[in-house]
């Protein structure tokens, strides 16, 4: 198995792949499709072992890490190929696959059935996938990852299974089979992930004891690329995985004694200052098929209306006419070790 470690708020899987969780703007849930919001810095990543006396006992069984989020705050997952070698990534929210909408299954799944010549799969390949901002809604867009408390029925897990018992985010990364790839040179068929992360970043100048899950936010333009190789490329016996618990600000203080990061600015404030949004030159890339299960997941705004709640957040449309819309260019026993557990 790949050794999974964390350092400087990044989670590394072996020597060739890492990821981090980017704080970002929650885009309005107004039936419009928005471009990519920026990264506003990484979420703190804390190992369960470092707080074994203060975390819930169930977390010790799961192992992994935890991150703090505010209710209705958004995130995106940034992928980084350290060697240029591709890896397979499966992402689940509350043990519901964020690509297929199916229950968590550790093995790679890929249907022979195709829709519109797009492959049906339950995983990502990075590169070419540089990031993931939400659940697969198909047709070139996603619904943003947004944190909500467990026990209210808002999460993807709650809507699909009728229960909210896991929460958080679950990730597994597989290596390619030996000899499939040599160290890739950067060029027209690779992505400089560090450059993309910098491009999309900002220049430097309770219920269930406060545990959170992932719900669906507003619509965003983002393709989920099909596997450019084949399912037989990947070594399912060589993997690393991590269980990422999400806690609210109060629970984070109780566990760590630290203050969580300040809540990010709103999309409206960001647009008023004419700061950049982002798009990707990926017209030549296809998109995987929509997930029937995830396509039926209601957004937080729709769940508010269904439950008879008045609007709990500002979802007024944002005027982007005066904002920069930048393009991101796409060309085709360690002290930091994270323990795995029983999921």
Q: What would your notes on this structure say?
A:
This protein is α+β, with helices and mostly antiparallel strands and 343 residues long. It has helices at 57-62, 156-161, 193-200, 249-256, 267-272, 292-295, 300-306; strands at residues 4-7, 10-13, 17-24, 33-34, 46-47, 65-68, 74-81, 87-93, 96-97, 110-115, 118-121, 124-126, 131-132, 134-138, 141-149, 169-176, 211-221, 234-247, 277-280, 325-328. The chain has a 16-stranded mixed beta sheet that branches. Strands 10-11 form a two-stranded antiparallel ribbon. Strands 19-20 form a two-stranded parallel ribbon. It is globular. It starts with a strand and ends in a 15-residue tail after the last strand.
List keywords for this structure.
single chain, 343 residues, alpha+beta, two-stranded antiparallel sheet, globular
Summed up:
This protein is α+β, with helices and mostly antiparallel strands. The protein is 13% helix and 32% strand.
Largest β sheet strand count, sense and barrel closure = 16 strands, mixed
What proportion of the residues is helical, as a percent range? 10-25%
**Secondary structure tally: strands:** 20
- Gross morphology: globular
Q: Compute the separation of the termini in Å.
A: 16 Å
Q: What Rg, in angstroms, do the CA atoms define?
A: 19 Å
In terms of per-residue confidence, which ranges show pLDDT below 50 for 5 or more consecutive residues?
A: 114-118, 185-198, 203-208
Q: Structural class of the helices, strands and pairings? A: alpha+beta
């Amino acid at each position: 198995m790949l050794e999974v470690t964390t350092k400087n708020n990044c989670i590394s899987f072996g020597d060739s792949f890492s990821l981090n969780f980017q704080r970002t703007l929650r885009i309005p849930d107004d039936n419009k499709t928005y471009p990519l919001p920026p990264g506003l810095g990484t979420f703190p990543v804390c190992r369960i072992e470092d707080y074994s006396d203060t975390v819930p006992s169930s977390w010790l069984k799961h192992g992994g890490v935890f991150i703090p989020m505010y209710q209705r705050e958004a995130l995106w997952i940034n992928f980084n190929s350290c060697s240029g070698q591709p890896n397979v990534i499966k992402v689940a929210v509350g043990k519901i696959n964020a690509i297929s909408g199916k229950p968590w299954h550790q093995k790679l799944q890929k249907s022979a059935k195709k829709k519109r010549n797009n492959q049906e799969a339950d995983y990502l390949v990075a590169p070419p996938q540089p990031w993931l901002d939400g659940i697969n809604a198909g047709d070139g867009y996603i619904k943003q990852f947004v944190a909500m408390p467990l026990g209210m029925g808002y999460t993807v897990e709650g809507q699909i299974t009728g229960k909210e018992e896991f929460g958080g985010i679950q990730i597994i990364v597989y290596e390619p089979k030996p000899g499939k790839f040599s160290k890739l040179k950067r060029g027209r068929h690779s992505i400089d992930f560090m450059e993309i992360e910098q491009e999309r970043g900002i220049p430097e100048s309770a219920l269930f004891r406060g545990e959170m899950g992932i719900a669906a936010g507003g619509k965003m333009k983002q393709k989920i690329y099909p596997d450019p190789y084949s399912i037989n490329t990947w070594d399912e016996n060589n993997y690393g995985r991590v269980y990422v618990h999400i806690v609210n600000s109060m629970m984070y203080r109780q566990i760590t004694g630290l203050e969580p990061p300040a809540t990010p600015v709103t999309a409206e404030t960001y647009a008023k200052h004419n700061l950049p949004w982002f798009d990707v030159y990926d017209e030549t890339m296809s998109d995987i098929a929509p997930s029937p299960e995830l396509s039926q997941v209601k957004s937080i705004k729709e769940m508010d209306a269904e439950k008879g709640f008045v609007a709990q957040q500002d979802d007024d449309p944002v005027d982007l006419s005066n904002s920069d819309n930048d393009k991101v260019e796409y060309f085709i026993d360690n002290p930091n070790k994270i323990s795995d557990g029983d999921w």
